[in-house]
Amino acid sequence: TELPIIVDVSHSTGRRDLLLPAAKVAKAVGANGIMMEVHPDPDHALSDAAQQINYDQLDQLGRDLWQD
C-alpha cells in the first residue's frame, strides 16, 4: 500500500514494558509512525493503565528509540 503505516504499540502489546521493544520493531520494518498511550499518572488512568506510560517515560523511550 502507499498509505502510511502507523503502529499502535500500546494496544498491540497491552503492557508498558513492551512498548520500547515493539516500537523498535515497528521502526525496523519501516513504519511511518508509532502511536502509544501517555498519561500523567498511568497507574490512576481510568482505562488501560497497564499499557500507558508517563511523560518522563515517553521522553526516555524517544531517546532510546532514536539513539541508533
Structure characterization notes:
The protein has a two-stranded parallel ribbon with strand order 1-2. It is mainly alpha-helical and 68 residues long. Helices cover 40% and strands 9% of the residues. The chain contains 3 helices and 2 strands; from the N terminus they run E-H-H-E-H. The chain starts with 5 loop residues before the first strand and ends with a helix. The mean pLDDT is 94. 18% of the residues are buried.
Q: Keywords, please?
A:
40% helix; 68 residues; 3 helices; 9% strand; 2 strands
Topology:
Layout: E1 6-8, H1 9-13, H2 19-28, E2 33-35, H3 55-66
Parallel strand pairs: 1-2
- H/I helix tally: 3
What proportion strand?
5-15%
What characteristic shape results from the CA principal axes?
globular
By DSSP, the count of extended strands is 2
In N-to-C order, the SSE pattern is EHHEH
Give the spatial strand order of the biggest sheet: 1-2
Q: What integer value in Å does the Rg equal?
A: 12 Å
Major pleated sheet: 2 strands, parallel
Mean pLDDT: 94
Any low-confidence stretches, pLDDT <50, length ≥5? Answer: none
Proportion of residues in helical segments: 25-40%
Whole-Å distance between the termini? 27 Å
SS-derived structural category = mainly alpha
Describe this structure in a few short sentences:
This protein has 68 residues and is mainly alpha-helical. Helices cover 40% and strands 9% of the residues. A two-stranded parallel ribbon has the order 1-2.
